[in-house]
Fold this sequence. Notes:
35% of the residues lie in helices and 10% in strands. By secondary structure, it is α/β, with parallel strands linked by helices. It is built from 11 helices and 8 strands. Helix 4 runs parallel beside helix 5 (145-155). It is globular. The protein has a single domain (4-383), classed as Arginase, Chain A, CATH 3.40.800.20. Strands 2-1-3-8-7-4-5-6 form an 8-stranded parallel β-sheet, sandwiched between helices. Residues 21-315 form the Histone deacetylase domain. This is Acetoin utilization protein AcuC.
Amino acid sequence: xxxxxxxxxxxxxQYDFGRGHPMSPARLDLTMRLADELGLLTSRDLEVVxxxxxxxxxxxxxxxxxxxxxxxxxxxGRPAPERGLGTEDDPVFAGMHDAAARLVAGxxxxxxxxxxxxxxxxxxxxxxxxxxxRDAASGFCIYNDAAAAVQxxxxxGAQRVAYVDLDAHHGDGVEAQFWDxxxxxxxxxxxxxxxxxxxxGSPADVGGAGAEGSVVNLALxxxxxxxxxxxxxxxxxxxxxxxxxPQVIVSQHGADAHAKDPxxxxxxxIDALRQAARVLHDLxxxxxxxxxxxxxxxxxxxxxxxxxxxxxxxxxxxxAPLDLAQPLPPAWREHVAQASGLTAARYLGIETAEWRRWAxxxxxxxxxxxxxxxxxxxxxxLWGLDPYQD
Length: 390
């Protein structure tokens, strides 16, 4: 049995809002080229599969039928700005329905494979479109493949699914989908919504009636760096997941918390993003018999960040993490130079400085610690946990 399953085919590059849009398909192309040059795609522990677009029946598990029809109509030349279709963030492009539906199919495919026991870990770095709502596109997201993957797991019999979102932007679409469902724990670690799109994700938002505590929002101040970001994750995620005891962990690995990303104000490094993936991977083995579905998401530093973060994610799922000091393949660096005119990094990154774990004590003068405590005070008591103690 392969250890991991990765959804990939060139057709996934067709999710393309056009020249100049931040969601460039080049970030996927460069990721897969790097993963291939690193020998990851030919690993005997990985199966790489292509998928067709998801059917309307699958899309309608998380979207209204009228919205799916509106996407098809927009694809045919009839935009619907009131549904987010044909806006600056989500311009209409030819083949949009099939391209977006293929992302959904990929995330549902790996969720099925993980739940059925065909693989331990499933990957769809083209997915993670967490802003789409039941009836509207939003934030570069037409259909919500992350929500569809979680819903497929529930429909297949899972009673407890943890969704952890590491994107710099709040995972509002997934949260809204499962707001009233105590079977799903949604955790979003993001830049404070008062300073960044979509403007949501308050620590006071904890879920609907009967599902209080199933929604967790960790809203971090702008300019939070690697050390603070990892401290925040450590202070919230492991304790809640251990209390919830998920049968599957679904995680979204948007790379836009990185310091070089043009669309956020966080200052997280590549090593911290790698460490976060390792935390979730380890928790999947500790709590969920290794069942882990890892998705992509945001990330708009197309050359310097996204390929390095997502290649590292694939390597982590293969239990073969990359060495930060490993030189990046010359052939890949040459392709970057020819395709973009930019100079690619020579190495994966540098090690994150030592960071204080939450158990070391709360610092009221620290902006990150205050944000963490706000989340813990709102959520931890709902789980019988002490917000002040580790």
